Amino acid sequence: MLKNSLIKIGNQTAYSAATLMAPFEFAVKNGFEAFEWFPDKKITGEGWLLSDISVETRSGIRQTAADNNMRLSVHAPWPSGPVADAASLTDTLAFAADIGASLINIHLHFDTTYADFADSLRPFLVLTSEAGISLSLENTVITSPSDFNLFFRQLRTFPPGEISHVGMCLDVGHANLCSETQNDYLRFLDLLDDNIPIIHMHMHENYGDHDSHLTVFTGPAGRDASGIEGLIERLKRRTFSGSIILEQWPEPQSLLIEARERLINIIKKKADTPEIGSIEPDSHEGIVGKFVAANRKFTSWRTRLEWISTMLETSDALDSDVLVNVAIYLKFLGTGAINCSEEGGHHRPSLHAKLARNIYSRLSDIESAENGLVIR
Questions:
Q1: CB within 8 A of 268, min separation 6: which ones?
Q2: Which of the residues in the chain have pLDDT under 70?
Q3: Of the residues 6, 58, 59, 281, which has the maximum number of CB atoms within 10 A of its CB?
């Protein structure tokens, strides 16, 4: 177990389990510190509904979790949302309160606009806040980092008291399937705004082809765990302290225990590793501070080039100070003065060359008599 850590690792109910309670009983027996309830009734009859769990059983779940210091969460039925099925969310909230869950998770999906979705969610924000239950919004295979950035910017137009308990559930497997970041879930995380709070996680693997929900370390990470290590590094920088839910019921179930132990070892290893550099985030202001923050956030050669390329493309103020810092930073990268780490993605070398070409083209477009020396 993760002693003295706010991160808790757990598993989830499963429609494929022999009984509704089997995954929970497994979690208790094997010392898992978190558990998620997901009513996922299939049209073929497998799975369960919230109504299948009696008042007495709910009370027993609450007491068992308290006795074992287990953090509980509830995944709202799919599909459900503030527009499609508000009643389902109300039932989910009642169930969460009955069992003593600290978080409800729903999928972020858009039938309309970001603003309309946020407005329709607003009554549920109030209800969960009043109940003292956090609310996480999960990325699906079709929601992109920009969807989350735009939605949370919209959410921040609400009073702080209405959204202080709201954050994101990062689903690693879904991020790996997103068309924008296919086979590169770390890039999904890198493209998220820094001020989006990640408060919950779903952990599973795939090969970028379909949502196979492989137990972590039985897919690509079984051969190369650097992607998971990069993920934990990023969560550390974001001060993540939520639950990591293993969304599987594998055969044998011992795979869940093995996955937990490997995750714990990586988390402990990264907890003892100092951050990149020794400069505090607020020790520099202005453009230097932006480079310091970006160097902390992006740790590979590719992602650092991507950041430079994006900044040059989107910035409206490429004055001499900015260009001088770009020149110095690229010099440090090119000479190896700044160490770069591997991040577990799968990219051809041509991608790095393309990024360099984009940077060259952008700088050529803005070259003038005043900045020509710096650009050259």
A1: 2
A2: 1-5, 79-86, 273-286, 315-317, 341-351, 374-375
A3: 58
Q: What is the pLDDT of residue 351?
A: 67
What CA–CA distances, in Å, run from 67 to 32, 64, 373? 13, 5, 68
The first and second tokens of residue 230, run together, are 């990069």
- Token digits of residue 6: 């706010």
Q: pTM for the full model?
A: 0.73
Q: Which of 163, 28, 35, 167 is nearest to 99 (CA)?
A: 35
* Tokens, residue 372: 């020509």
Spell 289-321 as b/e; 16+ CB within 10 A means b.
eebbbebbbbbbbbbbbbbbbebbeeeeebeee
Of 276, 244, 271, the C-alpha closest to 260 is 244
The Cα–Cα gap between 226 and 209 comes to: 20
What was the pLDDT predicted at 252?
A: 96
Number of C-beta neighbours around residue 124 at 10 A: 21
Tokens of 204: 């599973």
Amino acid at 283: S
At residue 245, what are phi and psi to the nearest 5 degrees? Answer: -100, 125
Residue with tokens 């190369």: 224
DSSP 6: S
Cβ(27)–Cβ(36) under 8 Å?
A: no
Strands 243-246, 198-203: pairing is parallel
Residue 344 gets which letter from DSSP? S
Distances in Å between the Cα of 166 and the Cα atoms of 125, 197, 367 are 8, 8, 45
**So what's the pLDDT on residue 283?**
44
Q: At which residue do the structure tokens 């924000």 appear?
A: 125
Q: What's the CA gap between 108 and 105, in Å, rounded?
A: 10
Q: Is there a contact between 174 and 141 (Cβ–Cβ < 8 Å)?
A: yes
CA–CA separation, 70 vs 56, rounded Å? 19
Q: Is the dihedral of CA 168, 170, 174, 175 positive or negative?
A: positive
The C-alpha R_g of the chain, in whole angstroms, comes to 22
Q: Which residue has the tokens 């795939």?
A: 206
* E strands present in the chain: 8-12, 34-37, 71-75, 103-107, 134-138, 166-171, 198-203, 243-246
Instruction: Write the pLDDT tens digit of every residue in 140-160.
Output: 999 999 999 999 999 999 999
* Distance in Å from the first CA to the final CA of the chain: 55
